[in-house]
């Protein structure tokens, strides 16, 4: 079981690196927004893997709070997004 959790953690870390590059080098603000949403989802998945590994459920409210903040942030930024100059 711990081998699978280790592999999951490594893959999540690699995904976070790739998405971090997309956030920094995104050609427009919408690409950066999608990248930040993906980073938030990867953080939630990482916390879930940590919760399974430690069998400590006190982190679950933080995961729910991250999901709520991510949803509200995405909706508000998408609503008030200004077109990029090209």
From TrEMBL:
<dbReference type="Pfam" id="PF04066">
    <property type="entry name" value="MrpF_PhaF"/>
</dbReference>
<keyword id="KW-0812">Transmembrane</keyword>
<keyword id="KW-0813">Transport</keyword>
<keyword id="KW-0472">Membrane</keyword>
<feature type="transmembrane region" description="Helical">
    <location>
        <begin position="33"/>
        <end position="53"/>
    </location>
</feature>
<dbReference type="InterPro" id="IPR007208">
    <property type="entry name" value="MrpF/PhaF-like"/>
</dbReference>
<feature type="transmembrane region" description="Helical">
    <location>
        <begin position="59"/>
        <end position="80"/>
    </location>
</feature>
<feature type="transmembrane region" description="Helical">
    <location>
        <begin position="6"/>
        <end position="24"/>
    </location>
</feature>
<comment type="similarity">
    <text>Belongs to the CPA3 antiporters (TC 2.A.63) subunit F family.</text>
</comment>
<protein>
    <submittedName>
        <fullName>Monovalent cation/H+ antiporter complex subunit F</fullName>
    </submittedName>
</protein>
<keyword id="KW-1003">Cell membrane</keyword>
<keyword id="KW-1133">Transmembrane helix</keyword>
